[in-house]
Write a structure and sequence with these properties.
Elements lengths: L2 E5 L4 H13 L2 E6 L2 H10 L5 E4 L5 H15 L4 E4 L15 H29 L3 E5 L12 H20 L5 E6 L6 H7 L9 H13 L9 E3 L3
Parallel strand pairs: 1-2, 1-4, 2-3, 4-5, 5-6, 6-7
Length: about 230
């Protein structure tokens, strides 16, 4: 079975992707911070699927996770950095320091931690595609979400540089998933988020698209199909 590793698997896009990949016959390994949600995933998807409680902002936790999961599922065919948080709507100068730091720690440093502990195994295997989730706000901006915008612009730049470092046969892409009705979006848009596709609808087109990505897409900034 092909294998996908997904961060932020306990809710939203990550949870929906896990379901779709499993339905497609892929082995899914994922992490999230919610103990209850990870327990539910373990009860729903039997081994070789595996799910663990991990805060990607903590490098030591990611290192332990990689040492546990790689012997089970092997180097992933697809590594999806999906885990992200957003600041509460506020002008930049009103964003608390600890909140700004948390957005940076999860969205940028968390992605880096996952890459540094999983990509070497993919390089040794000589294959695999890395998909780092960006955003429309990684290519444009909006008021009151400046910290989030900054991190998603960083995702774009880091991914393009990473793509230049990978050996032939591998790929790294920055993916804008589009605008989806998630808890995160409702924190920004309120009830207006209901005008957009829900995660189940999104995942039914996004996961086949993700499966189709490969070395020919290396270094591209892409957008998931609507």
């Amino acid at each position: 079975m092909p294998t996908v590793i997904i961060t932020g698997v306990t809710r939203g896009l990550g949870r929906a992707m896990a379901e779709r990949f499993a339905e497609t016959g892929w082995t899914v390994a994922g992490c999230g911070r919610s103990t209850a949600a990870i327990s539910e995933l373990r009860g729903t998807y039997a081994p070789p699927h595996c799910f663990d409680v991990v805060d990607v902002a903590d490098d030591a936790q990611v290192a332990d996770w990689s040492r546990d999961v790689l012997p089970i599922v092997g180097p992933p065919d697809l590594l999806i950095n999906n885990a992200a948080v957003i600041n509460a709507n506020a002008a930049l100068w009103n964003v608390p320091c600890d909140e700004f730091s948390r957005v940076v720690d999860v969205n940028i440093k968390g992605m880096f931690h996952v890459l540094r502990h999983f990509v070497p195994a993919m390089i040794d295997a000589g294959r695999g595609t890395i998909v780092n989730f960006s955003s429309g706000w990684g290519r444009s901006t909006a008021p009151e979400v400046a910290p989030y915008c900054a991190t998603k612009y960083a995702v774009e730049g880091l991914t393009l540089a990473l793509a230049q470092e990978l050996p032939t046969g591998m790929a790294a892409v920055a993916l804008n998933p589009g605008v989806i009705d998630t808890t995160m979006l409702r924190g920004c848009f309120g009830e207006g988020a209901g005008a957009y596709p829900d995660v189940d609808e999104w995942s039914r087109s996004a996961v086949p698209y993700l499966i189709g990505l490969g070395h020919s897409h290396n270094g591209q900034s892409l957008t998931a199909p609507e």
